[in-house]
Amino acid sequence: MILIWLVVGVVLTSVAFFLAPAGAELWPSLNAAGMVATFYLLALVFYSMRKPFSRRARIISWILVALVAGSVVTSWRTMDATTHWQRQTLLEIRGIIGEGIMRASIPDTLLNVLHQYYEQRPPKGASLGALFRGLYPAAKEGQRWTVTSPDESPPFIFVGRIDENEIVLIGQETFLKGRDPQFSNYDGRKGMKQHRAILTEKGVTYESEN
Amino acid sequence: MNQKIESIPPVPSSHGSEFSPGFVRALVLLAIATLVMVFIVDPVSFRRYDKMAAVSLYPWTVAGGQTISMGLSEFSGKELEPPSTSQRYGVLISILLAYIIGPTLFFLGWRRLRLEREANPNVRGLRVSQIPFLLGAIMTVTVAAPIVPIALLQLKVSAELRSAQAIQRNRDYIISGLDQICKEALQYKILPKQFGGGAGSYADYRLSSDAALTDHAHYELVGVTPDQVVVSARSTKYDNASVTVTIDGAGRLRGWTYLGVFQ
Questions:
Q1: Chain A closest CA to B96's CA: distance in Å?
Q2: What value of ipTM does the predicted structure carry?
Q3: Are B179 and A96 inside 8 Å of each other by CB?
Q4: Do B191 and A202 touch (CB under 8 A)?
Q5: B133, B142, B137: which is closest to B114 by C-alpha?
Q6: With an 8 Å Cβ cutoff, are A25 and B118 in contact?
Q7: Beta strands in A23-166 (DSSP E)
Q8: Measuring CA to CA, how many Å separate A62 from each of A42, A66, A70, B95, B99?
Q9: What are the φ and ψ backbone dihedral angles of A156, each rounded to 5 degrees?
Q10: Which of B253, B211, B261 has the alpha carbon at shortest distance from B235?
Q11: How far apart are CA B60 and CA B94, in angstroms?
C-alpha cells in the first residue's frame, strides 16, 4: 500500500512539475507541483487517519496538519511575493540610477558648454558647437560617448548632432523598457528607454522619447 | 460511510524484550539515514558545487534565490539565464522528499503500526518494518517543526523590508528631484535676462509649478541670494520627513540635511 501511494504521489507531482511552462523562473513548475502535492497530502491524511484512530487523534492530527500546511503556504507565498517584489525593486532602483545618470551627466556636460558660451566677452567668439568640440574632443557625432570612463555601464550616451548653434545628446538604456515596445532606439535596439537633450543658446531642453 | 480496516498478519512475539531482533540493524540504518539528512538534505538550502542540485526541505527558498539572482542580473545588465537542469531537478527532488515521500512513510507507517498494535496488543519494541515510519517521521518533523516560526518570521521580515524600501524609494525620488532643481537653477543663473535667466545671479530664481509639487514631495525655496539657493523638500508620504540642501554658486549641492524617517 505504501509503495502504491509513493508511486502515485511521485508520478503525479513530477508530471505536474514538468508539464508547467518552463520559463526563466522555477516558480511555475514549483507551484504546479506544490498544488498537486497539497491535494495528495490531504488525501493521504484523510486515508491514514481513518479508524482505528480515535476521533480525538483525528481531530488533533487535522489541527496539526492545518497549522503546518497553513504555515507552508504562508512561507511559500510570502517568499514568492517578496522575491518578485525585490526583483521589481531592483529594476526600479536601476531605473532611478539610469535616469539620474542621464539627468546628471548630460545636463552637466551641456550646462558647462552653455556656461563657457556666456562667459565669452562680446562679441561672442566661439559657437556652441565649437566650444563643445573644444571641451570634449572625444565626443564624435553619431557615436557612443563615454563621458567619464571607457567601461561605463548603461545607460549609454550618444552624440546625436553637433551643429554650430545646437547640440543633441541622447541617453539610452540597453535593457530597461520604455513606453513603446516598437520604438526604434538610437543604437538599433527596440523599445528601450530613451531621452534626448538639446542645447541651444536658450538653454537645455529635455524630451523623454520612450 | 463504511470504513474498512486492513488485516495485518500476526507479528511473532519478541519475548518481552525492548530490543527486538532487528533493533540493532534498524539503529544502524537510522544513523545512516540521519547522516544523509544532515549532509545531503540539509534543511537550509545549499549548493556545494555549481553542477550539484540545490536540495532544500523548503524548495521555495531555492526558487526565491533564483528570482533574486535574476533581478541582480537585470540590475547589472546581464543576459537572463534560465534555471539549469540541476536546479530544476534539485527543486523537484526537494518537493518529492519533503512533501510526498516523507509524509507518506510517516502517515502510512503510523497507520500500519497502529493496525499491528490492534492485531497484537502485546507486541513491543522496534522492528525493521518500522524503519520507513521512523524515516518518514524524521523527514516530516524536520519540515513541520520549524515551519510555523519560519512563516511568522518571514511575514515580519517582508513587512519590514517593504516599509524600509518605501522610505528609501521616497528619499531617492526626492534627491533626484533636488538634483533636477539644481540643474534648473544653474541654467537660470547662466542664461542672460533676454532668455529668462538671471545673468549670473540666482536672485530672482523661482521654482516652476511642475518642480514645486511632485508625487513624492513638495519643494520650496527657503533662501535665495545671488550666490546660493537653499531648497527644502517635504515628503508627501511621510509626516515630518524632509530634505534640505544648498545649491552653491557653481551649481553644486552642499549641506544635505535629512529629517524625520529620512535620517
A1: 6
A2: 0.74
A3: no
A4: yes
A5: B133
A6: no
A7: 156-162
A8: 10, 6, 12, 21, 16
A9: -90, 150
A10: B261
A11: 10
pLDDT digits (tens, 9 = 90+) for A160-177: 999 999 999 998 887 778
CA angle A129/A133/A138 to nearest 5° reads 140
- Distance (Å) of CA A5 to CA A10, A167, B108, B112: 8, 74, 9, 14
Please state, in angstroms and as integers, the Cα–Cα distance from residue A53 to each residue in A43, A47, A50, A130, B117, following that order.
16, 11, 6, 92, 11
Residue A93 near chain B (CB below 8 Å)? yes
The structure's pTM equals: 0.72
**Strand, helix or coil for residue B71:** helix
Interchain contact, A24 vs B82, CB within 8 Å: yes
- Give the best residue of B56, B70, B147 to mutate against chain A (max A CB count within 10 A): B147
User: What angle in degrees, to the nearest 10, is found between the helix axes of B59-75 and A55-119?
Assistant: 10
List pLDDT tens digits, range B93-134. 999 999 999 999 999 988 988 888 888 877 666 677 788 888
Distance CA A138, CA A158 (A): 12
How do residues B45-79 score in pLDDT, each as one tens digit?
Answer: 444 444 555 678 888 988 898 898 888 888 877 77
Distance from CA of B144 to the nearest CA of A (A): 6
Find the DSSP H helices in B191-220.
209-212
Among B105, B107, B118, the strongest candidate for a mutation testing the A interface, having the largest count of A CBs within 10 A, is B107
Amino acid at A133: R
* Closest partner CB to B66 (pick from A26, A92, A154): A26
What 3-state DSSP class applies to B52?
coil
Q: Across the interface, do A44 and B107 touch by the CB < 8 Å criterion?
A: yes
